[in-house]
Amino acid sequence: MVNVDDVREISKLVDECRKISGELDRLYNGLLFLLEKNAYSYNIKNRQKEIQEKIKEYEQITFCITNCDFS
Q: What is the pLDDT of residues 17-52, one digit of tens each?
């Protein structure tokens, strides 16, 4: 038997996850903007591999958050 209070709590957690995902998207887009803006100053080509790894981590986190299903 499903506990109604548990379902409500899980629903709240899912909503929080979606809000966090939106915040991560905004931060990620801001980071990309700053990287593009300062690409020449910081010589991004030398750090390309590190940046790609960070992007992969972000994508994995975002995928987990946006696809959480507690039903």
A: 888 888 888 998 888 888 777 766 666 666 777 888
Residue 49, in any domain of the structure: yes
The Cα 29–Cα 48 span in angstroms is 17
Half-sphere exposure of 32 (CA within 13 A, CB side): 9
20 within a domain of the structure (yes/no): yes
Answer whether residue 57 is part of any domain. yes
pTM over cut 0.85:
no
E strand or H helix at 30, and its extent?
A: helix 4-37
Q: Which domain holds residue 12?
A: 4-66
